[in-house]
Each structure stands twice: as structure tokens, then as C-alpha cells.
């Protein structure tokens, strides 16, 4: 796994900040976020963890895979390009009407199919790798 420094300027590495967030939650939300983080790392050992947007865990590989947010009643994993991913297990249950993003809301006591989730992460990475090459200006 690649480690990058946080964009917060505090000098702490993003993985450390994500671990701190999990510990601070201290309840089912922290356990859920930790479990999903572990699945992401199993799906992609080369995943890059980031800490963006004033405290949001972000997992990237050739672009954003997903973010992990915690709310009072759920943990939300938002896939940046989820609308373009196949979801045969119907994991996406939130943000279904958007043009690009899709999310998985996990409430207390809910389990996410680990195999289907890892497949979704791997598909998101494959989609990120298909990014068109940046256009360069032709020299005259």
C-alpha cells in the first residue's frame, strides 16, 4: 500500500488519520469502516489512502475508488464512478439517481457481501485505468 502525506498540512499520513477516525468513532461505525477498509486493501494491495475534504477517508488507484464517511446512523461508501460499474449483487443502495456517483449505506448490524464488494472495488480500479490519455497540443 502506498502512503501519502495528508493534504491538511498537519504532516500526519493519511492512513494514520483514517486509523484515528476509526478509533474516535469507537462504536459499530468504526468497526464497519475498519472492516470495509480491510476489504478495500484485500481487493487492491496497492491502494492509496488519502485524507481529503476536511476529514474524509478516500481510497484511490489511478483515480478515486471510493470515500468512506460516517454519520450518526450509517457508514457511507461513495464510489466516484459508481454509475458506470456493474453491480449484480445490488450493493449500491444510495445516490442511485445521480449521473456519476453511487453509494453503499451500511446501517448498524448490516453486513456487506465481501466478495461482491471486493469485485466492485476491482471494477472501479479497472475503470480508472481506462482514463483517456490527456490531449497534448501538436507542435507547429
From TrEMBL:
Residues 29-125 form the YdhG-like domain. It holds the Pfam family DUF1801. This is DUF1801 domain-containing protein. It comes from Variovorax rhizosphaerae.
Amino acid at each position: 500500500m502506498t502512503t501519502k502525506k495528508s493534504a491538511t498540512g498537519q504532516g500526519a499520513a493519511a492512513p494514520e488519520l483514517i486509523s484515528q477516525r476509526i478509533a474516535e468513532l469507537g462504536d459499530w461505525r468504526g468497526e464497519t469502516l475498519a472492516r470495509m477498509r480491510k476489504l478495500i486493501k484485500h481487493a487492491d494491495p496497492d491502494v492509496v489512502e488519502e485524507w481529503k475534504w476536511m476529514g474524509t477517508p478516500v481510497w484511490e488507484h489511478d483515480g478515486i475508488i471510493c470515500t468512506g464517511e460516517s454519520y450518526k446512523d450509517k457508514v457511507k461508501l461513495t464510489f466516484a464512478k459508481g454509475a458506470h460499474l456493474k453491480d449484480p449483487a445490488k450493493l449500491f443502495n444510495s445516490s442511485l439517481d445521480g449521473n456519476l456517483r453511487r453509494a453503499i449505506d451500511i446501517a448498524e448490524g448490516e453486513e456487506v457481501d465481501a466478495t461482491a464488494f471486493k469485485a466492485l472495488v476491482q471494477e472501479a480500479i479497472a475503470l480508472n485505468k481506462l482514463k483517456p490519455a490527456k490531449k497534448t497540443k501538436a507542435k507547429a
